[in-house]
C-alpha cells in the first residue's frame, strides 16, 4: 500500500484549513477534559454509568463504525468494484443492526453484563469466556492499527511528516481523550465526529458528481473505464464476491456477507454493543442500533460514490484500475484523498481533512475503549487480580489504554501490506466474528447447548476460517476479491454449529434455572421489559422504527438492482 508520501499526493492545505483543524482538535480534547469530571468509578469510565439517551448512543453507535475502515475502505471498494459495495451496508449491516435491537439487546442489557464476553461467561462458563475475551482483544488491537495507520497516512499527506512519526502523533491524540474521559469522552466525541464527517463528505460528493456530469455522466464514465455498466448494478456482484457464477455470487453475498459476517459483526462485536449498553434504559438500548440504521443506509452515497468517481476522473487512479500497475505510486486506498486533492479548494479542504481525521479517530477510539473494558473486566479482574477495590480497576483501565495504543502502533504497519484494506478487514472478521456469532445464536436459542460446546465450537470455527485463508493464500483455492473471506466466514459458521451440536449431544447441559435471562425460550417476557420505558411515545417503539427501516432497505436494494 502507498504511504501517500509522494509529493504529487500532498494536500495543499492553507492557513484557514489548519485553523479549522486546530479548532476541531480543541473541541475533541475539550470533550475529553469535561468528561473526566463525570468519571468517579469504573462503570462511569467503561460504560458511561448507563445514563445516556438513545439519540446520543445511536449516533455514537454508527459513528464508531464510521472510521477509517468505512471511509477509506469503502471508497476503495467503490473504486475497485462499484455499486456492489453497497452490499456492505444494505445487506451486510442494516438487517443485522435491526436484529440486534429487536432480539439481542434485551438479553445484553437485561442481564446487566458489562461486556459481550461476560455474557459468554454466564451462558457457557470460563473456558468459552476466556477464548472470546482473548480473541476479541487481539482483534481490536489489529483493527485499531488499521484506523491508526490511515490516520497517520492523512497526517503524512497534510504535513509531510514521515509515516512512523505521524503514526505516533495520531496515536497520542486519541489516547489523550480516551484516557481522560473513558467511554463518555469517546461517545460524545463520536457524536461530534458524525456531524463533522457528514459535513465533510456531502459537499465532496456533490462536487464530484458535478465534475463527472451527474449520474448519467457517472454511468458513462464507468462504461468507458470498464467496458460495461456492470459496476453500476448492485447485483449479482460477481467481481466483489470472486465467483464467476451469478448464483454462487448471490449465495456468497447473502450467506457469507449478509448473514455470517454481518450478524457476526453487528450482534456480537462489543465495539458496537458497548454503545447500546451505555444507554439509560432498555428501550433506549434497543433503539440505539435501530437509530444508527437510518444514517447507515444512506452513508454509502457519501463514500462509495466518491470512490467510483475517483476511479474515473483521477488520472493516476484511473490508470491503476486499467493496468493494476502501481507505477504512479497510488492504489485504491488513496481514492478519497486523491479526490479531495483534486476537487476541493482551501477552506473546504480543511473541512474535508477534519472530517477524515474525525472518522479515523472515531474508529480507533471505539476499538481502544472496547478493548480496555474487556481487558480490565474480563481478563484482568476475572483471571489475574481478583476482588480489589473499584478504583484499582479504574487505574488498570487507564493504564491498559496506553498499552493498547502502543500495540496499535505496531499493528498499524501490518495494514500497510494491503492494496485494499477491506480485504484485510473482512479476513479478520471471518476469523473472529463469524464463529462467535454461530456460538451466540445457537446458545441463545438452544437450551441444550453445553459449556464445553461453547468453547470447542468457537475454536473449531476459528481454525476452519484460518484454514480457508491459508488455502487461498497458497493458491489451492482461487478466490479473487473478497470471496475467500466470504467462504472462510461460511466455513467458520457451519463448522462451529456442527461441532457445537456434536459436543452438546455428548456432554451435560446446565440446569434450565441457570439459563433464565440467557436463553430466549426460558426467559419470561416481563424480564425483558424496563419499568422506565412505560411512558415512551408510540413513535419511540423499537419494533415500529425497525419495521420502517426494513422497508427502506428493501426499497434501496430493488431500486439499485
TrEMBL record:
From the record, give the transmembrane residue ranges. Answer: 20-39, 51-76, 88-109, 130-155, 161-180, 192-209, 247-268, 289-314, 348-375, 396-418, 424-445, 452-471, 483-503, 542-560
Q: Principal place where this protein is found? A: membrane
- UniProt entry keywords in alphabetical sequence: Membrane, Transmembrane, Transmembrane helix
A Gene Ontology MF term for this entry? D-glucose:sodium symporter activity
Per the record, membrane topology reads: Multi-pass membrane protein
The subcellular localization recorded is: Membrane
Kindly list the GO CC terms recorded for this protein: plasma membrane
State the superkingdom. Bacteria
Q: Which family does it belong to?
A: Belongs to the sodium:solute symporter (SSF) (TC 2.A.21) family.
Name this protein carries in UniProt: Na+/galactose cotransporter
The organism encoding this protein is Jiangella asiatica
